[in-house]
Design brief:
This protein is of the alpha+beta class. Helices cover about 50% and strands about 20% of the residues. It contains 12 helices and 12 strands. It has helices at about 1-30, 90-100, 115-145, 170-175, 195-205, 250-265, 270-280, 295-305, 305-310, 315-340, 345-365, 380-405, and strands at about 35-50, 55-70, 150-155, 160-165, 165-170, 185, 190, 210-215, 220-225, 225-230, 235, 240-245.
Amino acid sequence: MGIIGVVIVIVGLLISVALHECGHMLPAKKFGVYVPEFAVGFGPRLLAWKKGDTTYSLRAILLGGYVRIVGMFAPAREGIKTTNSRGKPTLAQEAREASMEEIPQGYESRAFYLLHPAKKIVVMLGGPMVNLFLSIVLMTVALVGIGIPRASLTLGDVPQELSSQGTSVQAPAYAAGIRRGDTITAINGTGVQSWDEMRQAIASSQGEIGVDYLRQGQSYHVQIDPLRTADSVSIGVIAGIEYHAASPATVASSVWQTFTGTVQVVVRLPLALWDVGQSLVKGTPRDSAGVMSVVGIGRIAADATSSDVTASSGGWMRSLALLLSILASLNMALFVFNLLPFPPLDGGHIVSALYEWIRRGIARARGRQVPPPADTARLMPLTYTMGALLIAMTVLLVAADIIAPISLQ
């Protein structure tokens, strides 16, 4: 049964990444930038079709997707060093040349680097904003469409026996004829509206307890001699689960808590990765609230839809709500993480565009000529460094999720 949860999360994540790339592509095309390809997945093409200037494709390795936006890097300005001490092109110059080579003849005016900085920000911010929107929608569906679970007076179970001081005794409610699916309406003649009210009424009672309940629309009344211990009074019933739609304020609070929690995780990411490494080396349990890879998320999804968890946590409704919450958290993570101000992340491009915009404003204020586009290719050493760190982080987390996984069970 856990396979269903894994499939839902994988498909949901794939759709989230594809829509993230749409968030970049649509404004880029709107602003006239040449976008030659939009792909879901990587590797060999399975399916492709062309619409306008863009080829849309489905590829074999369904682990993400990408959009090609041409002309990300401006040509080198006069006086900029383009070769190293050995006479070979620098990393920045190689990036500039590759960027120029992908622009077909006649499309030179449609390069990304020619956009106004404000438009560059819109293009690069579009992807993360789509993930934020998806996170809010998924959380709203989970909290409003499915609802928040709470204990119900319609009984989820009435066991035949209870454990008392190490021995099994017959459960008082079962002995009195109460069964699963019955709805308790009153205790000792006083109506109860919630599970907590019922528990308080039972706990404060003396002697036998009068219980009124409904079964298939018929009212019944029984007298029950409860099981009393030094610190509790029990008649031996287990609450069912009912769902109530959350208020807009609750949804907003949950979105905010998810956002701030994600920011905290990202801020302490180096320390969290260190803890994961320590757990692998020392064989100690991992932090259940720590970071994990897609493999770990898949395991959590499998646990959420396993038969045991489904049976004990309120059925498929609760499992579906948990899966939607996982996808909402993933999209929030994509939103926050992609806004980090380092290339090749979207935040790195946004910071570069802001720098270019500020530089333009200062030049105008001083009556000077508007400067050329920012030479973001010079950040290639940082881009490669960040890429290597992201790969190392992924390898560490995947290894940890295989060797010492975090589990719901």
